[in-house]
């Protein structure tokens, strides 16, 4: 069996490969293994991904690559693994059902399964099917021991020992029934929120705009709701959002903006808007595209109790000095390797399966 160090080094090399595809530009480097086979071919896969999914813009795809290239270095992976006991395990086949809302959204699960020493059986979303299989081929080239350990399927999942499935609240009910006899992690709908006090700096609010608009707001780590004090003045908030005004030039985003605005106007809902973002008072955590919901709170103590009660609906809390596990403004889309979706330790789950 391939040892842990070989698995780590394979992902480090993958990080090096991805570092050529940055938001600052795509630049081929001579010292990257197998670039002759993979560099130009990966550019083609990026093109296919963009053509297949209108939400996958060049900027958003390269932003995802940029994050993973930074994460997949030797130091980060060693720190990530330092709290786990990698005893010799009996390799099992782990099925992953992936979402497709943002580029490479299922990569962390894929990474954890292979790093733990198990085989992986991947069922991708049709919305994001071009990038990961190609990166899997790169892994197999830099570390041939991965050959036979990675399988992609579009068919019904069969012959697996455990499953990690991500979907909506509705699909989660199906997953829980269908996989009830298997060890599993089943993820449901979650959204991220920001808590504002009115004391935020302009820089913090500008950073918040990245939490809201990156990936068009489609990720579970995107801020879809604000909690604000009574009589909060949204002027500074809207001023800070303005840097993202070119987002309205995207046809899919603009269509959603126009549709949701028309619905709100016909329903005579109160809302504020600036030409590319609407904010609406609403108790829900899940807001439509181009919309952020907000809700008033009386005191921070009562808000903390509410957030604790609603914890299973919340992925990230953006705040400044409110709770222990809060995330700084602008950092929701820059997760660390140990920022597990839904707060469930995927690697600990995998290491218990033997």
From TrEMBL:
Single GO term (MF): acyl-CoA dehydrogenase activity
Recorded superkingdom: Bacteria
GO biological process: bioluminescence
UniProt xrefs under Pfam families: LuxC (PF05893)
The entry's keywords: NADP
Entry-linked InterPro entries: Ald_DH/histidinol_DH (IPR016161), CoA_reduct_LuxC (IPR008670)
Protein name, as recorded: Acyl-CoA reductase
Organism name: Formosa maritima
């Amino acid at each position: 069996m391939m040892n842990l160090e070989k698995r780590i080094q394979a992902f480090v090399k993958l990080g090096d490969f991805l570092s050529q595809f940055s938001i600052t530009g795509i630049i081929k480097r001579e010292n990257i293994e197998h670039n002759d086979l993979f560099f130009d071919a990966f550019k083609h896969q990026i093109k296919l991904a963009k053509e297949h999914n209108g939400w996958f813009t060049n900027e958003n795809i390269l932003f995802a690559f940029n994050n993973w290239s930074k994460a997949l270095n030797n130091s980060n992976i060693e720190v990530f693994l330092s709290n786990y006991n990698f005893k010799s395990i009996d390799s099992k086949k782990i099925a992953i059902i992936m979402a497709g809302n943002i580029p490479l959204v299922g990569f962390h699960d894929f990474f954890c399964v292979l790093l733990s020493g198990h085989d992986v059986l991947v069922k991708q979303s049709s919305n994001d099917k071009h990038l990961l299989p190609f990166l899997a081929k790169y892994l197999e080239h830099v570390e041939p021991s991965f050959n036979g350990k990675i399988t992609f399927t579009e068919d019904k999942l069969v012959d697996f020992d455990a499953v990690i499935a991500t979907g909506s609240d509705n699909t989660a009910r199906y997953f829980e029934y269908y996989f009830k006899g298997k060890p599993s992690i089943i993820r449901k709908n979650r959204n991220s929120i920001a808590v504002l006090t009115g004391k935020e700096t302009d820089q913090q609010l500008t950073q918040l705009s990245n939490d809201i608009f990156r990936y068009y707001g489609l990720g579970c780590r995107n801020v879809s709701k604000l909690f604000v004090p009574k009589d909060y003045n949204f002027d500074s908030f809207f001023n800070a959002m303005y840097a993202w005004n070119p987002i309205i030039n995207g046809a899919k985003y603009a269509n959603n903006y126009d549709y949701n605005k028309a619905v709100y106007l016909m329903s005579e809902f109160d809302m504020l808007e600036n030409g590319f973002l609407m904010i609406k008072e609403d108790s829900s955590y899940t807001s439509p595209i181009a919309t952020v919901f907000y809700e008033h709170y009386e005191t921070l103590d009562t808000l903390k109790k509410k957030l604790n009660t609603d914890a299973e609906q919340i992925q990230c809390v953006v705040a400044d000095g409110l709770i222990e596990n809060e995330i700084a403004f602008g950092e929701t889309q820059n997760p660390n390797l140990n920022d597990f979706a839904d707060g469930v330790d995927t690697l600990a789950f995998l290491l218990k399966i033997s």
